[in-house]
Each structure stands twice: as C-alpha cells, then as structure tokens.
Amino acid sequence: MSVSVTTPGLVARSKTVASVADEYADWGDKEGRLTEPVLDALHREGLFGMWVPLSISGGAELDPVSSLQLLENVSYSDPSVGWVLMAAALAIGTGAAYLDDSAVSELFGGNRLPSQASHPANAGFFWISWMPVDNRYRRYIAGRIPPRSRVERPASM
Q1: CA distance 35 to 37
Q2: Burial grade of 95 (CB within 10 A; 0-12, 13-18, 19 or more)
Q3: Is the pLDDT of residue 53 over 50?
Q4: Do 147 and 32 contact (CB within 8 A), yes or no?
Q5: What separation in angstroms does the CA of 108 have from each of 96, 127, 144?
Q6: What is the pLDDT of residues 82-108, one digit of tens each?
Q7: Terminal CA-to-CA distance of the chain, rounded, Å?
Q8: pLDDT digits (tens, 9 = 90+) for 23-40
Q9: Domains in the chain and their CATH numbers?
Q10: How far apart are CA 150 and CA 14, in angstroms?
C-alpha cells in the first residue's frame, strides 16, 4: 500500500497567494491576464511544484485531497489563478515525472521550476512539450486552448 505524501505547509502558503490574487483580481478581469505579482507569488510560495516529485528540487508531490484544498484556496480569490495554477502544475509535474533524467536535469536544474505553458497575447494557451534535438531538449507546440486567463511569460520561466 502506498502512502500519500502531503505538505500542509504548501496548502497554508496557498492562502498567501490567494490574498495577492484577490488584490489583483479586478485588474486581471479587465486585462485578461495574471499580474506579475500573482505569478511571482505562485513561484515564491512553491505552488507550481505541487505535483512535481519530491526527488526534484521544488517538488512537493502533493496528495489529491491537499491538492484540491490548495486549488480551492487560490480559486476562491480569483478562479483564473486557480485554473492557471492547475494547468501549469499538471504540465510541470508530468514533465518532471515522465521525462528521462537528462531532460529533467536540463529543464529542472534552474533557480525556479519551468513552466510548460506559454501564451502569446490574444492567441490562447499553447501547450508546450519537449523533444530531443541535438542532444538537448527543445520545446514544440503540442496543442492550443483559446484564451481566457493569460500568462504572458516565456515558455520556460
């Protein structure tokens, strides 16, 4: 029987992000994208690592119930932030869990976790996947979701 890994501290830190998201929710509704302070809070509090394996720096490997509590906390203040977090955390976590060691070392070896979704203005989310090219991993567009909540940062943040 496997034991769920839970990080109560991460769920508590989601309330910090929720307060920042609440502060900027009206701006986000008007502009149609998340603000830099909200994105910075998501990174600073480590929420993008919620589904990243513990073996990777920044990974919390959060269990399902705690994950839902965390997403509820963030979404209550601004549902767009909760949606972006859920989508990005899933992409980041599955990349960390299923890529081979060399790709994980390259993509997850920086100061912050990578983001595997990007958004050119007015174009929708482009899901980014990774493929080996010349002994390195390169991004390629794997799909598109029409715009609703935008994150206007490079694909690898």
Answers
A1: 5
A2: buried
A3: yes
A4: yes
A5: 8, 18, 24
A6: 988 998 899 889 888 888 888 888 888
A7: 36
A8: 999 998 888 888 889 989
A9: 8-145 (1.10.540.10)
A10: 20
